[in-house]
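Colleagues,

For the teaching module next term, I've prepared a clean inverse folding example: a structure given as tokens, and then the sequence designed for it. I'd like students to try predicting residues themselves before seeing the answer, so please don't circulate the second half yet.
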């Protein structure tokens, strides 16, 4: 360096040391904000008519050590970026001058900004004389923290606790500057209060100088807090402003004593009948649920704490069921009750039962069933409703009166309750055959038919069958009959094979008399034979062909006989050649020739003449 340059440098340093600035006016921003690992640009604007003779950049760390550290030097002859500083490889400097505006500028650029870069930056500008000026800028570093993490306390807190209980923990990491945590309950911020709310915070500076902030929330819980939503809010600084982020909302478990219980039937508002399964539930308004007991008519029942299950209930289960809670921690006992009615419908009682009437008599039937609900009674016969009341009156009994009567009792408000009972009414009288003997269709397997006879009467008649041949009058064996009781009599059936015309007789008898009926039965076998032949002819085409052949042969034989007869009478002339036309007049009267042809050849047969002469085949 020249002596002149050294002298100027010493003069400049003396000026800086004495902090007396003259003609050079330097302007810098008070603070420059930048995000961590971003790029910072610190500008230094000065006023000079001519370019600066020397520009020097310094840094000054916060705290007690107020010494300056040079990071850059520039003059007309050299430019130095101090080696070995923490900025090596990360800083760049530029400078320019505008003579027309009498101003110049110097720019410091810092790449990949680190937290250690948060310092005060000093720009010193010297002119060609001894005048100089300097400006100061503070670089502020920011780093946005992670999202807040909230965690609630898994075990519940009691409203009876004397001191505030911890309900949640909130944590946020890697913030710079230090972020702030605020607690909220249902969108309302919580403030520190010794009696109701307590907030405990801690912060940790990590090795990378970023902050971790944790906060614990304590409250004196109330019953209404069981439905409250808690969350934490984090506010943090960013370049040029403040931002906010929220954690998820959580609900806390609050323990409080039971002050009342409610007991009810599930499902409610339904009618209960014998045989049903009934569920009775009991719930307390405390948390957790207290110990619950059920009693009925002074007897304690076995239950699954909150639920009492009654299976196959009876009418004796009707009454009041009491649910009682025992909260041993709070020392509070409460109870509630519910009344249930088990409805029923007893078996039907019909009077009289199994009655036998004489013809012309009257009868009154009554049907009753005991029930806990209003009932509806109806009488039926053969599926038809007769009356809709519990009394049925029968007048002037006849065979039509006899039969099975059914009484049905229902509960309109509870249709599942229903009872039925039948009673048999018989009318005394001699047998009466309802209709003539009926004949069923022919059984194709054995060509038999069923004969049926239906007779009324009481006592039930005995039916006897007889069969006889219509031509000879001789009896025919009777097969075993199948007899079936009906409401009013007997239905009898036999199966017969009528090979000839028969007469069937059905006799019904009881102690009061006898009645019979007869019917002629066609000979089904004859019809069957004819049908079979017709079917055989219709289906056999080969038999027709054979019959035609036989007829043709007979016609040929007759024709041959006629020709022979004419020949004997001399009425038929015949030639002597191999073939002769019967119409030729030159034919000889003494010879007759018959020509028989086969499919492939012809053969002439010479018949003996009248005179007995024999001719050769050539003649």
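(Answer key — instructors only)
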């Amino acid at each position: 360096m020249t002596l002149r340059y050294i002298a100027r440098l010493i003069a400049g340093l003396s000026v800086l040391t004495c902090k007396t600035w003259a003609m050079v006016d330097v302007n810098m921003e008070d603070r420059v904000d930048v995000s961590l690992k971003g790029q910072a640009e610190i500008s230094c604007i000065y006023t000079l008519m001519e370019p600066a003779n020397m520009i020097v950049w310094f840094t000054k760390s916060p705290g007690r050590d107020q010494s300056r550290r040079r990071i850059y030097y520039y003059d007309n002859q050299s430019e130095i970026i101090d080696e070995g500083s923490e900025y090596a490889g990360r800083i760049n400097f530029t400078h320019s001058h505008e003579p027309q505006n009498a101003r110049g500028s110097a720019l410091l650029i810092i790449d990949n900004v680190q937290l250690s870069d948060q310092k005060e930056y000093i720009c010193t500008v010297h002119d060609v004389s001894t005048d100089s000026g300097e400006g100061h800028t503070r670089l502020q570093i920011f780093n946005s923290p992670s999202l807040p993490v909230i965690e609630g306390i898994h075990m519940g807190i009691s409203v009876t606790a004397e001191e505030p209980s911890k309900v949640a923990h909130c944590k946020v990491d890697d913030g710079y500057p230090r972020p702030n945590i605020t607690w909220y309950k249902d969108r309302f911020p919580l403030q520190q209060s010794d009696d109701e709310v307590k907030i405990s915070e801690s912060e940790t500076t990590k090795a990378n100088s970023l902050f971790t902030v944790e906060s614990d929330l304590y409250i004196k819980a109330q019953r209404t807090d069981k439905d409250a939503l808690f969350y934490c809010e984090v506010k943090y600084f960013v370049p040029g402003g403040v931002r906010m982020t929220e954690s998820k909302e959580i609900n806390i478990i609050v323990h409080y004593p039971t002050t009342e219980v409610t007991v009810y039937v599930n499902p409610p508002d339904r009618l209960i009948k014998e045989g049903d399964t009934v569920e009775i539930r009991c719930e307390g308004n405390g948390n957790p649920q207290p110990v619950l007991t059920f009693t009925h008519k002074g007897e304690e029942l076995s239950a699954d704490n909150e639920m009492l299950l009654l299976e196959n209930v009876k009418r004796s289960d009707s009454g009041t069921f009491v649910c009682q809670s025992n909260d041993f921690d709070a020392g509070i006992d409460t109870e509630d009750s519910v009344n249930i009615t088990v409805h029923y419908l007893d078996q039907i009682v019909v009077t009289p039962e199994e009655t036998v009437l004489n013809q012309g008599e009257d009868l009154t039937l009554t049907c009753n069933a005991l029930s806990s609900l209003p009932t509806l009674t109806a009488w039926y016969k053969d599926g038809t409703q007769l009356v809709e009341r519990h009394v049925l009156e029968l007048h002037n009994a006849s065979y039509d009166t006899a039969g099975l009567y059914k009484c049905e009792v229902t509960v309109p408000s509870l249709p599942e309750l229903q009872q039925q009972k039948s009673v048999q009414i018989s009318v005394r009288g001699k047998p009466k055959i309802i209709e003539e003997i009926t004949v069923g269709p022919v059984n194709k397997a054995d060509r038999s038919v069923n004969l049926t006879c239906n007779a009324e009467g009481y006592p039930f008649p005995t039916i006897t069958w007889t069969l006889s041949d219509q031509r000879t009058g001789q009896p025919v064996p009777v097969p075993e009959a199948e007899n079936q009781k009906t409401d009013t009599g007997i239905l009898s059936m036999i199966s017969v094979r009528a090979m000839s015309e028969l007469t069937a007789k059905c006799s019904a008898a009881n102690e009061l008399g006898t009645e019979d009926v007869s019917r002629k039965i066609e000979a089904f076998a004859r019809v069957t034979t004819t049908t079979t032949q017709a079917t055989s002819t219709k289906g056999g085409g080969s038999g027709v062909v054979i019959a035609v052949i036989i007829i043709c042969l007979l016609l040929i034989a007759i024709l041959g006989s006629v020709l022979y007869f004419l020949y004997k009478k001399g009425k038929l002339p015949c030639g002597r050649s191999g073939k002769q036309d019967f119409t030729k007049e030159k034919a000889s009267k003494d010879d007759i020739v018959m020509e028989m042809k086969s499919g492939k050849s012809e053969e002439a047969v010479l018949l003996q003449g009248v005179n007995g002469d024999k001719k050769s085949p050539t003649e």
